[in-house]
Amino acid sequence: MKKLKQTIDSIKHPDREVYEKALARLADQARPAGCLGELEALSARLAGIAGTLDVQLKNKIIVTCAGDHGVVEEGVSLFPSDVTTQMVFNFVNGGASVNVLARHAGARVFVADLGVNYDFKPDLPVFHKKIRKGTSNLAKGPAMTREEAVQSIEAGIEIVEELLRKERVDMLGTGDMGIGNTTPSSAIIASFSGIAVEKLTGRGTGLGDKALQSKIKTIKKALELNNPDKNDPIDVLAKIGGFEIGGLAGLVLGAAANSIPVVCDGLISTAGALIACELAPAAKDYLFASHRSVEAGHKFMHDHLGLEPILDLKMRLGEGTGAAVSMEILDVATRILAEIKTWSEVNIKDVQNKS
Amino acid sequence: MKKLKQTIDSIKHPDREVYEKALARLADQARPAGCLGELEALSARLAGIAGTLDVQLKNKIIVTCAGDHGVVEEGVSLFPSDVTTQMVFNFVNGGASVNVLARHAGARVFVADLGVNYDFKPDLPVFHKKIRKGTSNLAKGPAMTREEAVQSIEAGIEIVEELLRKERVDMLGTGDMGIGNTTPSSAIIASFSGIAVEKLTGRGTGLGDKALQSKIKTIKKALELNNPDKNDPIDVLAKIGGFEIGGLAGLVLGAAANSIPVVCDGLISTAGALIACELAPAAKDYLFASHRSVEAGHKFMHDHLGLEPILDLKMRLGEGTGAAVSMEILDVATRILAEIKTWSEVNIKDVQNKS
Fold first, then answer.
1. CB distance from A36 to chain B under 8 Å?
2. Whose CA, among A263, B203, B286, B327, lies 20 to 30 Å from B266?
């Protein structure tokens, strides 16, 4: 709990002066004001975070947090739990979707085991942060203890700290792997938002109509049974969350505390980010929403966090895939601020009437 | 007219067999089916066009077509016409927005003078395809003659042919520069769609309310006065178009005739693409829509062309900036098809129930 509290306390707002300078330079570039839309907003935020107008996102890292879920026994996923383990090996071998997309974006993927139901050998190159081999079934009781919830968030913070002991990190991306984890994520959104579970629950990896109805019932049952306190984010995480979701919350807090921009992936990563920002609202300043997933409920979280998703490509995979693709756009955003010339630099008189 | 006819006649459909193979491989990759959304659709189309599952978009070129517009005398733009000329020099010097964004996407920018009101020296490294030094004021009569319209389209085709004589082109992007050119573009959409001018006309580079009303009046006047025949795309281009818009139509036709995927930029490029596809519907198979501009009317064209825009970043600059940014995503799309492993390749049993 001490690490968590210290981390939350150490989150500061980005550099307002550099942010304002960035906006001024963008407005003075040889093009109609505002015409690069969201790219301008992104570039100014990144400048404020980095404290410079020439932001270099050289070392980009995606951390994919993995965990298993007791709720899978309720039939909420098309895939069996052991796919979580198999995908961890797939990530380590570099053949998964997030590896391909990260490679293209010039980012590296690290995997973190927060609670996978498998005994990985200690020399497997992943962050070994297992809390327990899968959560308890949240439809039958709390997913984890309060202590485990704190431990999972602190594990995420530790991952950031361990990365930073080895290297400078210019941008962090979050990703998830955990069969069944759209169920706790939807439950978390329902808990914080008060929106009906039916409206927030999606098909995950591709449930049919009947299985979707069953998933909705499971989430409702979990909420009624556990009655999480939405004013206590750790209670929400403990009762209806997941170990990797706690880890994802910790990544956001750790990034914010170290002034690293953090781009969060789809539904599960955003649920983690939501818990982080409920614990520490200032973390929002460091957060970027990679894409709008097709999963219902994702939009609520973006609105709640005040974030405009960068992409809307109907993706719904997780792993950090959306974070990886959006890093290409965030990279572009840094370039427009640094490289597009101003009117005076190109000797074109600014004739624009701003009325 | 002979070149135009020959080009239209030579456009063939992409390779259906490779397209189907691409879809089959995507469906068999170690991830839930369809979860990479639009990226999958893009990658399959690119494979069909290239005739291979391992599409390499190595040589990407953006051609920015420039031209001036007599209608500027009606006060439809905040900028004076001579900014078109100045921006041509800015492009050539590499300091404009499109240069920066293209550089990041690994693309090169070529500029084409289709009708700029300036005598560029012959050694300026642009495509010298000037039809005339600016169109006539379409609010007072036809913007150009029918012959000039054909000539402008053929100039665009020639640019593709001249590029191909020197090098292989893996992807072509279109871009525009022409002060006042949202006016002919909106007029073209109104003409083809029959939608009210009020609904289709936007603020261009940033018109105020009064100037917007005046722009709408100008477009209405142009449509009434010239009465373009929407079943005759060359008539539409001639009466209410622009030289660079003709050039942009020619780029699309030239790319399609040479089996090159072509990604079109914002409102003006899409107006050019619309004319190309009205002349040769098969050209649509080679066309990609880079982004949804904030300009009203852009959505109509995308729907009409059956294209889903790749990005929605509230951009409204032109130059080829949207094409450049979307090339990053198109590049990613080629990698997912080629590099993500299938279930059998990673030895994970495909347990997905596709119900």
1. yes
2. A263
